[in-house]
Amino acid sequence: xxxxxxxxxxxxxxxxxxxxxAAPESPDxxxxxxxxxxxxxxxxxxxxxxKYFDTINPAKETRIASVAEAGQADVDAAVSAARQAYNKVxxxxxxxxxxxYIYRIARLMQERARELAIIESMDGGKPxxxxxxxxxxxxxxxxxxxxxxxxxxxxxxxGMKAExxxxxxxxxxxxxxxxxxxWKIAPALxxxxxxxxxxxxxxxxxxxKLAEIIRDADLPPGVVNxxxxxxxxxxxxxxxxxxxxxxxxxxxxxxKIIQKALAGTSKKFTLELGGKAANxxxxxxxxxxxxxxxxxxxxxNQGHVCCAGSRLFVQESIxxxxxxxxxxxxxxLIVGDPLDKNTDIGxxxxxxxxxxxxxxxxxxxxxxGECYQSSCSLPxxxxxxxxxxxxxVAQSSKIVQEEIFGPVLAIQTFRTVEExxxxxxxxxxxxxxxxxxxxxxxxxxxxxxxxxxxxxxNTFNKFDPTSPFGGYKESxxxxxxxxxxxxxxxx
Length: 491
Ligand code: NAP
Ligand code: MG
Fold this sequence. Notes:
By secondary structure, the protein is α/β, with parallel strands linked by helices. The chain has two domains: about 35-275 and about 475-485, 3-Layer(aba) Sandwich (Aldehyde Dehydrogenase, Chain A, domain 1); about 280-465, Aldehyde Dehydrogenase, Chain A, domain 2 (3-Layer(aba) Sandwich), CATH 3.40.309.10. Helix content is about 40%, strand content about 15%. The chain has 17 helices and 19 strands. Strands 1-14-15-16-13-12-17-18 form an eight-stranded mixed sheet, with helices on both faces. The protein has a six-stranded mixed sheet with strand order 9-8-7-10-11-19, sandwiched between helices. Helix 14 (about 400) links the parallel strand 15 (about 390) and strand 16 (about 410-415). Helix 3 packs antiparallel against helix 5 (about 130-150), helix 5 packs parallel to helix 7 (about 175-190) and helix 11 (about 285-300) packs across helix 12. The structure holds NADP nicotinamide-adenine-dinucleotide phosphate and magnesium ion. NADP nicotinamide-adenine-dinucleotide phosphate binds near residues 201, 258, 306 and 405.
């Protein structure tokens, strides 16, 4: 059984001082079609498969729209459009002109930012504050950033002639749908490649809105093709002979399937996979800021974050104080309507994901972990999970080793710097991590010894288009973002 908190414990008297009136963002001005076709060769095209699936709002369990399911013939058409556009237009266009198109996409995204943020929250369940302040502005920033690189590629790779790879097949997950599309499309286009992109089955809508923007930006037909569907559509892209490069972001399990499928082919690939980040708090850290960082690290976006700080290591001398403060802070987190600007934690993305989180939490309890959850009320409809922490867990516990991809934190203690480093590295993953301390020298010592692609010091989950991102070990290979993200799309 999970122990639940009580608001009575919270020193701030949550009920009287921290009760906010609802502040919902209105979806009234949002125009969504009832049915979405595939975006191939610059046009929305009905699927040859004749199949459609529903995308739902996970906060309400209601259908939003039907979306085309691309079959093999549709993927063939998209790849052939991308090849034609590559050969005839995009690879021949002066780089400066390519850059202008990419700028135009960025500006149109900014103009439609509010609409994109609302649709992102409706389709995926994330709080509007995050889609409005993080996902959408960062997505536009990626297009701006890579637009600037388009005519400077030879400077990015001194002494080499930058040449595009050709047609890129790109497959993305549901946790940052628009942002992941931007991560993939912007550098590919800047480098002169054309694209076939598949968004995740549960969150296709902002990618389809991006298709409208790409059409309105007058991008030559076929340069970007967006084909919706499930895993089989993704597999059809991976296995397509007409594709030169695969860029995949998703789970380690599917990443391994893709790597096997690509072995022995000439296709290049980048894989951005799962994570189980260590967030390490030393006794000399600013403790209140660290608590905010822990909350941001694991409860942000319902814990649907590959680089989430899902393993917490606290120095023993401050463990009790920190745990008390963390529990108090958890009580003030508001779980509920993603469109309400007060909401801290929105809906879990799908019923499947909710079931996965529940089953791993159950395993954690059965393994002897002490489970504590906030006492917040949950809406009656929709997919929700309370912010949850586990103490009394071992390095070998399943919830310490496996990616849960939900708002669930496993907490352990340590005594020495060496012990913290050893425990942090005891994982098959290596995507990200965080260190909290007052001492700069400790930051450098610890971060240089942790095997992870991204490390934050005295902060967590900060992103920027200029900064490369990617993992070690089973968290993937290759880097996206920054100048490194250019070489992922150049020969
Ligand atoms: P997933 O199940 O691996 O799916 C990712 C994408 O691959 C989806 O579009 C999916 O389609 C598609 N797909 C499924 N099976 C496929 C196959 N056999 N061949 C080709 N494509 C296939 O991952 P997810 O559950 O959507 O996302 C969560 C995972 O992504 C987590 O593990 C997280 O850590 C990781 N992630 C990593 C990063 C990073 O940068 N390292 C960033 C974000 C997320 P469907 O949607 O239809 O299943
Ligand atoms: Mg949905």
